[in-house]
Amino acid sequence: MLNFDKIKNTDIDVYNAIIAEKNRQNSCIEMIASENFTSEAVMQAMGSYLTNKYAEGYPGQRYYSGCQNIDIVENLACDRACKLFGAEHANVQPHSGAQANEAVYIACLEKGDTVLSMSLNSGGHISHLSKASAQSRFYNTCYYEVNPETYLIDYDEILNLAINNKPKLIIAGASAYPRKIDFAKFKEIADKVGALLMVDMAHIAGLVAANLHMSPVPYADFVTFTTHKTLRGPRGGVILCKSKWAQKIDSAVFPKMQGGPLEHIIAAKAICLKEAMQEEFKTYQNQVIKNAQSLAKTLISEHINIITNGTDNHLVLIDLRQYGITGKELANTLDLIGITTNKNAIPFDTTSKTVTSGIRLGTPAITTRGFIEGDVEIIAKIIAEIIHNKCKISQEKSTKYKQIVEKLCRKYPLYR
Ligand code: PLP
């Protein structure tokens, strides 16, 4: 158990907020698809002595003295990232997923170059050069959508767009796509038009590590990911690339984009990568998918509309359009009974990003807690009932739902 007594003695206000957050995590059902609960080993590394060290540069080539221990840690993280994913080169310094993506753009694009990426509504991420990102000002970005009928990635349409727009870079990977992505097909398209391929596997890195999703590494010039989602590590980013891009990627991260690396976080990344090599991690990821599929199946049997009618991965996207409620309303209602989710745009959504017509649910965090299919069915039935009642729930129902949430949380305690 982690001990926060020193914080308590130094700053009671921050201490109180930390303990309140611990209690919130313990007593709520966390269904945000991009969140997870790290191990205490990962948390300890983040609060370790390494936080004190400046280490601009890379192992063996630092701009500061005294980096011998830091080099050990960073080399471990890089070697493990390469080994786990079969990559030729790894840069573990990006402070976040968005920064990992930005470094790839800096490494391989010139101002005005054309990029083809997935639109936000179809499930892409802001950092895939959506119009909301500052980086999009520098490039000529065009976007692909999922198929308007099936909501699946339409590889023929992407090929057409690639032929017509001649992008220098094609970006694959998503924040809200519930199905498998065929990276071999993306590579075929990229080769046909002479484009580079970047895959952002932030959401599915844990599934890829456990061999439960096709790896993008053999196909993509660059693979980026965050370590804090399905991979269950610290908040941060990693870039994998072919050796021929190693020097350009490294110089894009430092000195072009960042200053000193966060070596305490890099130590935590090394630990989470080691954890991901263990057999138990594979069992965990298998359960993540089983739970997501149980969630989808139960929602469907309760007549709830799911984008693509199911899931292959860790997330489920509910289409709320036919029920007369918004993603915002549903997320707020679920929050009141202790189920934490996020409103999310669905393909071809016409509502604003702050309202949305969808809700995204994920199983990585609850699976870490120990939830299995039967538990997920209980949650799915509550969510379905609330949707059918258009978020209008009586005091009596609200009390009943809260009791069910509390009981499930007590069954699988997170922190003592
Ligand atoms: N890439 C994808 C696919 C994501 O879903 C996210 C965040 O959710 C990011 C990148 C950004 O990661 P970060 O929040 O660490 O910048």
Question: What would you note in describing this structure?
Answer:
- Strands 4-10-9-8-7-5-6 form a seven-stranded mixed beta sheet, sandwiched between helices.
- It has two domains: 44-275, Type I PLP-dependent aspartate aminotransferase-like (Major domain) (Aspartate Aminotransferase, domain 2), CATH 3.40.640; 279-411, Alpha-Beta Complex (Aspartate Aminotransferase, domain 1), CATH 3.90.1150.10.
- The longest helix has 23 residues, at 279-301.
- It is 44% helix and 13% strand.
- By secondary structure, the chain is of the alpha/beta class.
- Strand 7 (169-172), helix 7 and strand 8 form a beta-alpha-beta unit.
- The model has no long low-confidence stretch (mean pLDDT 97).
> CATH first level of the largest domain: which class?
Alpha Beta
SS element count, helices: 15
CATH superfamily (homologous) name of the largest domain: Type I PLP-dependent aspartate aminotransferase-like (Major domain)
Rg computed from alpha carbons, rounded to a whole number of angstroms: 22 Å
User: What is the second-level CATH architecture of the largest domain?
Assistant: 3-Layer(aba) Sandwich
CATH topology of the largest domain: Aspartate Aminotransferase, domain 2
Q: Which bin fits the share of residues in helices? A: 40-55%
Number of domains: 2
What's the average pLDDT? 97
Order of neighbouring strands in the sheet with most strands: 4-10-9-8-7-5-6
Bound molecules: pyridoxal-5'-phosphate
The succession of helices and strands, N to C, reads HHEHEEHEHEEHEHEHEEHHHEHEEEHHH
Output the structural class: alpha/beta
- Tell me, briefly, the overall form: globular
Beta-strand content estimate: 5-15%
Number of DSSP-assigned strands: 14
Provide the low-confidence segments as ranges: none
